[in-house]
DNA sequence: AATACTCCCAACCGCCAGTAC
DNA sequence: GGTACTGGCGGTTGGGAGTAT
């Protein structure tokens, strides 16, 4: 099957969208919808753009339900967890964050999160390999790095710590948050491996939040697909 | 003030899967 | 079953904005 171009790249406009183009795109979709076909959309809307470009602009930026504010620490935590389980499945990760697009999440990961040590923390248990470049601290290493592997119950112990950290008003700066969370995790590694039932900061384990619900759901789905026994 | 450098994000590219014919 | 076409995805890049020198 040969690759067919979606439009004549030499004749369509490229680069940043002007406010006028945004307005045309938005108005046309509000009035007529996408028409179910992005390739013919630019012609109908009177835009000198590639259909794919129109789709991307709408999906990633102009859609009314898109959030344009900064990522919260709580969202960061979810991204960390899901990335460690799923890898670079940005669309799936984004689907768990209301108002965020795959492009948003990918950019945020590449520019902010992957440099931080927390990116090396989670691994999904059972049949996953134990080495990964993706979950490693890429700011200091370019080779495969061994990272901790946590079981589902262990991860459930981590979640309250993360959530508590993200909600704690005493955290005054992001660097303070980062170092505290990293510290919590380094201690957690020893603590709950020996099953003492609490985080290093004494936060009880029975406060499982929605992050864990997401994990459970994914584990169930993965287990169903891969024939891996469901732990929950 | 001018230049160099870095960071970040919007947008593009190319591939793949699904579907229609 | 084979081909053409489209939508969607992940990887990558270009360039504007901010910061350092």
TrEMBL record:
Keywords: DNA-binding, Nucleus, Repeat, Transcription, Transcription regulation. CDD domains: SANT. GO terms for molecular function: DNA binding. The keyword DNA damage does not apply. The keyword DNA-binding applies. GO terms for cellular component: nucleus. Its main location: nucleus. It is found in: Nucleus. It holds the Pfam family Myb_DNA-binding. SMART domains: SANT. Residues 9-62, 63-113 form the Myb-like domain. Residues 9-62, 63-117 form the HTH myb-type domain. SUPFAM superfamilies: Homeodomain-like. This is Transcription factor RAX2. It comes from Abeliophyllum distichum.
């Amino acid at each position: 099957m040969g690759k067919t171009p979606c439009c004549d790249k030499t004749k369509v406009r490229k680069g940043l969208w002007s406010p006028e183009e945004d307005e045309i795109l938005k108005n046309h979709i509000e009035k007529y919808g996408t028409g179910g076909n992005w390739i013919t959309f630019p012609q109908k809307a009177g835009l000198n753009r590639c259909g794919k470009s129109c789709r991307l602009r709408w999906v990633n930026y102009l859609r009314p339900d898109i959030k344009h504010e900064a990522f919260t620490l709580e969202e960061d935590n979810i991204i960390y967890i899901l990335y460690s389980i799923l890898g670079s499945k940005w669309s799936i990760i984004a689907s768990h964050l209301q108002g965020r697009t795959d492009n948003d999440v990918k950019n945020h990961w590449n520019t902010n999160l992957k440099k931080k040590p927390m990116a090396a923390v989670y691994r999904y248990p059972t049949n996953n390999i134990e080495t990964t470049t993706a979950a490693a601290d890429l700011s200091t290493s370019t080779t495969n790095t061994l990272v901790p592997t946590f079981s589902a119950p262990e991860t459930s112990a981590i979640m309250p710590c993360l959530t508590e950290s993200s909600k704690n008003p005493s955290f005054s700066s992001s660097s303070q948050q980062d170092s505290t969370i990293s510290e919590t995790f380094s201690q957690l590694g020893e603590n709950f491996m020996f099953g003492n039932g609490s985080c290093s900061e004494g936060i009880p384990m029975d406060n499982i939040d929605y992050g864990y619900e997401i994990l459970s759901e994914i584990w169930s789905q993965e287990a169903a697909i891969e024939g891996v026994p469901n732990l929950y």
